[in-house]
Amino acid sequence: MTIKLLVVGKTDVSLLEKIIEDYKKRIRFYIKFEIETIPDLKNTKNISQEEQKNKEGALLLKQIADNDFLVLLDERGKEYTSVEFSAQLQKIMNTGVKQCVFVIGGPYGFSQQVYQRANNMCSLSRMTFSHQIVRLFFVEQLYRAFTILNNEPYHHQ
C-alpha cells in the first residue's frame, strides 16, 4: 500500500520542512509514502470562502483515484489516541486498498464534494493549528503508528 499526504499550499518555514523530511524518510522504512502539494489559489481576495473551498476541492479530487481510501484531516473528524490511530491504520491496510490518501485542506476546510467523497475523517485535535504545523503533527503520528504496529520502543505507555 502507498500512503499519500495531499496538502494545499507549500510549507514556507524551512525548519518545519526539514523536520517533515526527516519523518518522511523514517516512514519510508515501513511503507511507500509521499507528500503531494496542491498550489495555493491565486487572487483569493475577490472570491468567497465557499468558492475558494470549491476550487480547492476540485483540484484535490483530481489527485484522488476512485479506488483510493480517502481520509480527511478535519476538526470534525474522530479523535484517536496514538494506539487507536495505529489500529485504524492497520484496518485500512488490511482491506487491501492500494493507496490511502490523507488530506489537509486549505484555510477554510473542504468543499461538500470532498466531504462526500471521503471514506473517513480524523481530527488531530479540537484546537486549530496552521496547515504547516498540522503536516508535522500528522507525519509524526504516522511514524509513531508504524512503530506501535511493529512493537518498537518509540511510543511509551
Question: For the CA atoms, what is the radius of gyration?
Answer: 15 Å
Q: CATH fold name, please?
A: Alpha/beta knot
Q: Mean pLDDT score, rounded?
A: 95
Count of β-strands: 5
Largest sheet: spatial strand order: 2-1-4-3-5
Brief summary:
Belongs to the RNA methyltransferase RlmH family. The protein has a single domain, classed as SPOUT methyltransferase, trefoil knot domain (Alpha/beta knot).
Describe, in plain words, how this protein is organized in 3D.
The protein contains five helices and five strands. It is α/β, with parallel strands linked by helices and 157 residues long. The protein has a single domain, classed as Alpha/beta knot, CATH 3.40.1280. The protein is globular and about 50 Å long. The chain starts with a strand and ends in an 8-residue tail after the last helix. The model has no long low-confidence stretch (mean pLDDT 95). Keywords: Cytoplasm, Methyltransferase, rRNA processing, S-adenosyl-L-methionine, Transferase.
Key traits:
alpha/beta, Alpha/beta knot, 5 strands, 22% strand, 157 residues, 5-stranded parallel β-sheet, 42% helix, single chain
Topology:
Elements: E1 2-8, H1 14-27, E2 32-38, H2 49-62, E3 69-79, H3 82-94, E4 99-104, H4 112-117, E5 120-123, H5 131-149
Parallel strand pairs: 1-2, 1-4, 3-4, 3-5
Helix pairs in contact: 1-5, 3-5
